[in-house]
Amino acid sequence: MAKFVGEVIKAYPSQSAALQQWQDSAGSVLAQIGAGGDLFMSIATRAFFGGASGAGYVNISSSGNGGRQGLVIQGAASQTVNLQEWQN
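Structure (tokenized):
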């Protein structure tokens, strides 16, 4: 029924490990939902990012706290290409 939540995952009060995690066959983390609800995705997941490659991460976090950034994009120390590119 449309009024019911399909799945609920509740953390323990002192939860520090991820609530849910997706891994490849080697055990490398591809994506996870952190204990605080943060979404973490590895950009090595080529299909998700339409061909992006390299080692790095995207972390999107939103909070009601006005003192936090809504989106942080951080390149590798050896970054030589655009951090962001919008195309149509």
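The first strand starts at residue 20 and ends at 23. The chain is about 0% helix and 20% strand.
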